[in-house]
Amino acid sequence: MTNVKFGVIVFPGSNCDHDAHYVAETIMGQETRLIWHKEGSIGDVNVVILPGGFSYGDYLRCGAIARFSPVMKDVVRFAQNGGMVIGICNGFQVLTEAGLLPGVLLKNRSLLFICKYLHLRVENANTRFTGMSKKGEVLEIPIAHGEGNYFTDQETLKRLEENQQVVFRYCDRAGNVTDEANPNGSLNNIAGIVNETGNVLGMMPHPERAADPVLKHTDGKKIFQSMIQSVSSQFQFVESMVVERS
Amino acid sequence: MFHSKIFVTLKKSILDPQGKAVEQGIHALGFESVGNVRIGKYIEMDIETSSRDEAERMTREISDKLLANLVMESYTFTTEPFEELTAQP
Prior knowledge:
heterodimer; A: alpha/beta; Rossmann fold; nine-stranded mixed beta sheet; two-stranded antiparallel ribbon; 5 helices; 11 strands; 24% strand; globular; B: alpha+beta; Mth169, Chain: A; three-stranded antiparallel beta sheet; 3 helices; elongated
């Protein structure tokens, strides 16, 4: 079986880095390493995870300082060359600040930090992060944030919707996207988006907190499985090209 | 030497729930006539240069690239010359 290499970036103040590492390595059985933010290179990883937490104490704005960490230059280069990057929670905030994803995460409309399980509807199952799900499928994955209220200008929002870049929306148990199911005030109930080229995903919910069977919820595993599947199929494609040529 | 004062505020079009909460507090204090309370950030910094243009240009670039996120915030600033020794309180 193909071994996909995961790299989890560790900023000062990251606190979901070890959870992400544990899920990628122990639950999913992939080679995984933690990458300290001062490293100049991410090495030969196939997938970069920007984990949740409070990088730099959320000083100035969430993710505003983390994007200047030395390692981020290489993460941006990796992403621009088509490398897979997933930003979870604070990682999503870092991706918007770094300009890899459009928009911004405002303070929750309730002003409260919200930590609870909720439901997400898979809006686009044709991405490298959702290939193991079906369109319309409802996943139960927890959120834990104070600034998850997705906002962008109307023009960008229109483009996101038209390009099917909205990957997850907050919904109720039955999959209805309603205002009651919107925990933080996000535009169009947006919980996760991909960039135009589909290789960078940002999501506020924590798939790494819903992957270990011990925790009873394992829907988050599908996102890890999808990423592994996507990278593996690329490997197979490259291998088949090599075989054809030889 | 120049001294810049930067005020970062949420754009008018962005709901400011923090400002709303503070407004409720102000009303609870009895100041019913107060409205449109908005919360922002204040940043100040010294810039070692003898040119006002240079100090303003630097302040603008720093604000655009770091201090404000122009998707949701706007900013204003003032840049004034000052002498290090006399300016300290």
